[in-house]
Structures are given as structure tokens and as C-alpha cells.
Write a structure and sequence with these properties.
By secondary structure, this protein is α/β, with parallel strands linked by helices. Helices cover about 40% and strands about 15% of the residues.
Length: about 280
């Protein structure tokens, strides 16, 4: 397929959870997808935790839909792997039309109380959750501007917008994670203002509480799950794919969309809420 005929998405954190779901949803809407994460093969875990999922299995699911996939290793803390993954995608497919900055640091410190937060842990989280997405977007944006088309989607969090309902570890979130998500949220509004007539679109997706494999390990006691009714990863995944492909999404350019609410309004996913839960939208 010629590069001009191909639609290419690049998704970080695509081995499992929202990144995997978004990658598959993008493929269903006609994109070839470069799926990038630290875990390349099933049965491995980049940080030693017992997590299922890998970029290879995500790529297999994409190919089963008749689209092409690249399974790429990418470590948010290693700029060289970001550059290598982007270069491989451009070499193979000639372009990147959609960037989904979904990958997030999942190591120690995310649920630390403020007084327990070490400076080194805070620095690592900013490197992974803010600096990596900034570097990646700066690498891809010039070619999008040259073509006059493209889309950047950042996965943000209510943690960066609101106060926690309880301390970290007791049903709330820590300062460090919230601070990085608040910083990332500012990117798309700035990009919209700087490039108002470039033909590009920039979105934040606030997924709501989503029960992913990593969330279950980060919250083993289920404290968060007792406070929030979780949606499956396919809900924000469907919203990402809609934003990347539907012309009506332009109305949300430069803004933050609430994935669960939008998915219900546009019927992008069957209603996942139990009658007892009252929902999360």
C-alpha cells in the first residue's frame, strides 16, 4: 500500500489495558497501527509484575481485523527507544497520522502519600508521563503540519483535575501521579492555539475509572473499586478511535472529553453499567 493511501496510528502503552483497546478500535476503523510498549512478548513483564498482555498479542489482534501492525519496544524512560520506534514506523509505512500518548509510568511511587514522595520518584514520573509524550509529539508534529493533517490524543486523568476522595492507598491517588497528569493535560490546548488553521486536531481523553490489569495490581485491596464503578478498557478505546477518525470530532478540538459520557451519548459502546451501580458517566 502506498504511504499516501495508508492511515497510520502510533499508540504507546499498547500491550494491555486502554492502549490495547484503543489500538484494536483504531484498526477496526481502518488504521494500520504501530503498537509500542516495554512488554514485547506474552509472558514477559517489563517490571516483573504478573501482568498479561504484550505488543505482539495486540498486533495479532490487529492483523486478525485485516490491518497491518508493528510490534515495537518502547520505554518511556529511554528516549532512544522512542526515537527508534518512530523511525521504524516511518521507515515501514512512511507516515504517522495519529499519535496516542497513552503510556504511563506504573512503578513505585504512584500511590505514595505526599510526605513519602521522594524527589527521585517524582522526577521519574515526570520523565515518563510528561517529558516522553512531549518528545514523541515534537518528533511527529512537523510532518503532520507539513501534510496539513494529523491528530494527537493524550490520555489524561481526573486525578490531574480534582482532589482525591481519600488519601493515596485508601481510595485516592498520590500527588506525584496527579501532578504529571495535570501537566500533560495542558499540551493539547496550547497546540490548538499555536496551530489553529493547520488542519490538525488535538484531544485529551479522560477515561474515567477503568479496570485494567495494572489497576488491579496497583489497588490489590480494591479500595478504589469500592468507590468507583469501573468501565472496561474498550470504552475509552472506542472514544479514541472515534476522535481519530470521525469528522464530527473536530468540535472537541483542543479540549478534554470524558470518555465514558461520550461513549454513552454517541453509543460507541454498549452500556456497561449495572442497574445497581448508577454508572460513572
Amino acid at each position: 500500500m502506498e504511504a499516501a493511501e495508508r492511515k497510520v496510528a502510533f499508540v504507546t502503552g499498547a500491550s494491555r489495558g486502554i492502549g490495547r483497546a484503543a489500538s484494536i478500535a483504531l484498526a477496526a476503523r481502518g488504521f494500520d497501527v504501530a503498537v509500542a510498549a516495554r512488554t514485547v512478548k506474552e509472558g514477559e513483564s517489563a517490571d516483573g509484575r504478573p501482568l498479561t498482555g504484550s505488543v505482539e498479542t495486540t498486533a495479532e489482534a490487529i492483523r486478525a481485523l485485516g490491518r497491518e501492525a508493528l510490534a515495537l519496544r518502547l520505554d518511556l524512560l529511554d528516549t532512544g527507544t522512542i526515537d527508534a520506534a518512530l523511525s521504524r514506523t516511518i521507515w515501514e509505512w512512511g507516515r504517522i497520522d495519529v499519535v496516542v500518548n497513552n503510556g504511563v509510568y506504573t512503578g513505585p511511587g504512584s500511590l505514595d502519600l505526599f510526605l513519602d514522595t521522594r524527589a527521585g520518584a517524582l522526577e521519574i514520573m515526570f520523565r515518563a508521563n510528561v517529558f516522553a509524550a512531549t518528545h514523541l509529539t515534537q518528533r511527529v508534529l512537523p510532518s503532520m503540519l507539513e501534510r496539513g493533517s494529523g491528530c494527537v490524543i493524550n490520555m489524561v486523568s481526573a486525578a490531574g483535575m480534582t482532589d482525591p476522595p481519600a488519601p493515596a492507598g485508601s481510595g485516592g491517588w498520590g500527588f506525584a501521579y496527579a501532578a504529571t497528569k495535570a501537566a500533560l493535560q495542558r499540551m493539547v490546548g496550547v497546540l490548538r492555539v499555536e496551530h489553529p488553521d493547520a488542519g490538525l486536531h488535538f484531544f485529551n481523553v479522560e477515561p474515567g475509572f477503568v479496570v485494567t490489569e495494572a489497576m488491579k495490581l496497583a489497588d490489590p485491596g480494591g479500595a478504589l473499586r469500592t468507590r468507583f464503578a469501573g468501565a472496561p478498557p474498550e470504552v475509552p478505546g472506542a472514544v479514541v478511535a472515534w476522535l481519530a477518525s470521525d469528522p464530527a470530532a473536530a468540535a472537541h478540538n483542543g479540549s478534554t472529553v470524558e470518555a465514558q459520557r461520550l461513549a454513552l451519548e454517541l453509543e460507541l459502546h454498549p452500556d456497561w453499567r449495572s442497574p445497581q451501580s448508577g454508572g460513572t458517566a
